[in-house]
Amino acid sequence: MHDELHQLFDPDSSTFTYVLVDRAAAEAVLVDSVAQRFDRDVAMLRRLGVTLRYVVETHTHADHVTAAGRLREATGAVTAAPFKCGISRADVQLAHGDTLQFGHAEVLHAIHTPGHTSGSTSYLWRGNVLTGDTLLIEGCGRTDFQSGDAGSLYDSVHERLFTLPADTRVWPAHDYKGNTVSTIGHEKLHNPRLAGRDRASFIELMNNLQLPKPKMIDIAVPANRNLGLTHAA
Amino acid sequence: MHDELHQLFDPDSSTFTYVLVDRAAAEAVLVDSVAQRFDRDVAMLRRLGVTLRYVVETHTHADHVTAAGRLREATGAVTAAPFKCGISRADVQLAHGDTLQFGHAEVLHAIHTPGHTSGSTSYLWRGNVLTGDTLLIEGCGRTDFQSGDAGSLYDSVHERLFTLPADTRVWPAHDYKGNTVSTIGHEKLHNPRLAGRDRASFIELMNNLQLPKPKMIDIAVPANRNLGLTHAA
């Protein structure tokens, strides 16, 4: 058995999409798709010769629209989303501790990590954690829109991510500097927002970032609650 | 034991750099670096918490300058290059069938695949083949400069790559369309230049592409023979 974790990048929104593969069973799970990269992802699955079992979201994205609905239609995969995200059209609503199984014996573990949004969920698979917008490489997601909450993000990271083994690979939903991967050990020691900072100071930092409103939010959030589909169920 | 193959992309030259990791031993091998991404690669190795054992080239690149020399200086890694590439400054000269060992029991196998250049070499590791500019995703490297030879490339691909198991992942040195990975099985069936085409027809195709001379070639080739270093040994 092998790890086979593929990371794909959308340069327009700086979004990472992940494809996890059980090679022996030729089955895959795709996490955080991007509507404009639908063709890329379908072609990649075909080249890899794998069947897509699940299309999963880490949260309701505000900066791009998902391809989850179209991927379900094209491949027959089951869609899954965290239950607090309002993505009512997803086939599976995931709570903390829930698992998705694929391939012969692969298990994706849902870790509820609220803060960027109240539903934000990370996924653990074979020493890899897909952290969405909760924990970024030497950064973290913003907490000032949707259901964001800085204190919750601090608790999620410290209680549910920084408690993972130090060599766990961290795969975020975005990077804006050309980086691709980190580890829990590195982020615990060197994350400039989260390492060695107390909760009150983190909340003050996050509440004073004064970031502009995401350009896509009013389009992306309602679209993503519908899995990116423009037609009704 | 896990596969841990990291693919990094340089958008300026559309070059992929690969980092292969033995997680248990915390050791890595880096293949096909890019001078301008030296800082990115060093930072990534630090975040992963791994020691770099080898810096390897697939061939003498004509489109970008390697960071191999600087990576050796910064990390103490050993540099390795195919013996027919004229990279005389590399610590190890690799011939067909040679291996590089790292970590507890990891073995990188050198497969001489001439055609793009006479020294071009692919590397096999745990069901993954790093094909350099020999075999690209639904394409192949050009054969009209340096020591390129279309017939040799055809033979290399058919005799030494297409004979690998169908589910072997193909990781090329470049992609210009946003793709990241393929498989031997897919390329055997669907590569528009190489699938189902006889040798004579392939040679005619490749000899009539009429591609422009690479902009960087007169700078890149001599620099890469010196591992990208501007100072003498």
Pick out its properties.
27% strand, globular, 233 residues, 24% helix, 6-stranded mixed beta sheet, homodimer, alpha/beta, 6 helices
If you had to describe this structure to a student in words, what would you say it looks like?
Two copies of one chain form a homodimer. Chain A is α/β, with parallel strands linked by helices and 233 residues long. Chain A is built from six helices and 14 strands. Chain A has a six-stranded mixed sheet, with helices on one face. The first copy, chain A, has a six-stranded mixed sheet with strand order 7-8-9-10-13-14. In chain A, helix 3 packs across helix 5. The longest helix of chain A is centred in the C-terminal third of the chain and has 12 residues. Chain A is globular, with a radius of gyration of 17 Å. The N and C termini of chain A lie far apart (38 Å). In chain A, 55% of the residues are buried.
Order of helices and strands of chain A: EEEHEHEEEEEEEEHEEHHH
Oligomer: homodimer
How are the strands ordered across the major sheet of chain A?
1-2-3-4-5-6
The overall strand count of chain A is 14
Biggest interface, CB < 8 A: A-B, 32 and 32 residues
The structural class of chain A is alpha/beta
Name the overall outline of chain A. Answer: globular
Biggest sheet descriptor of chain A: 6 strands, mixed
Regions with little confidence, pLDDT below 50 for 5+ residues of chain A: none
**Roughly what is the average pLDDT of chain A, rounded to an integer?**
96
Radius of gyration of chain A in whole Å, from Cα?
A: 17 Å
Helix content of chain A: 10-25%
